[in-house]
Amino acid sequence: MKKVLTIAGSDSSGGAGIQADLKTFSAHGVFGMSVITAVTAQNTQGVFAVQDISSDVIAAQIKAVFEDIEVDGVKVGMVSQIPTIEVIAEQLRLYAPRTIVIDPVMVSKSGYHLLNPEAESTLIHELLPLATVVTPNIPEAEVITKMAIHTTAQMENAAKEIYQMGAKNVLLKGGHLEGASTDILYDGQSFRYFTTARIQTKNTHGTGCTLSSAITSNLALCYPLYEAVAQAKEYITIAIEHSLDIGKGVGPTHHFYTLYKKAGIIK
Question: Could you tell me the pTM of the whole model?
Answer without folding.
Answer: 0.96
